[in-house]
Amino acid sequence: MRIEDDLVEQLLNPFVVDRLADVCSKDEEYQKRLKEEVLIYQKLSEELPNEQAEELEQYFIAASSTAARKETLTYIRGMKDMLTLLKSLLK
After folding, report:
1. Can you tell me the distance from the alpha carbon of 3 to that of 7, in angstroms, rounded to the nearest whole number?
2. How far apart are CA 64 and CA 81, in angstroms?
3. Would the pTM count as exceeding 0.70?
4. Which residues 6+ apart lie within 8 Å of 80 measured at CB?
5. Which residue has better confidence, 36 or 76?
6. End-to-end CA distance of the chain
C-alpha cells in the first residue's frame, strides 16, 4: 500500500464506518437478514456443546471482522475511483 493510500484510508475510515453503520441501520433488507443471522446463530450456539459453541463464536467474530474490512476497503476504493474519475473529467 502506498503512503498516500494509507493516509487517505486513515482520514476516511471514521467517516466510512459511521456512514456504513447509518446506511445499514436504515436498510430494511439488511435488518431482516441480520435478524435471520442472529436467530440461526443463537439456535446453533444453544444446541452445541460449550467448546463447539465457543469455536462457533470465534468463527463468527473472525468472519464478521473480515466482512467489515472488505466493506471498508470497497467503500474507500470507490471513493478513490470517484476522485480519479473527477480529476480526469476536469482536465
Report:
1. 6
2. 26
3. no
4. 5, 8
5. 36
6. 26
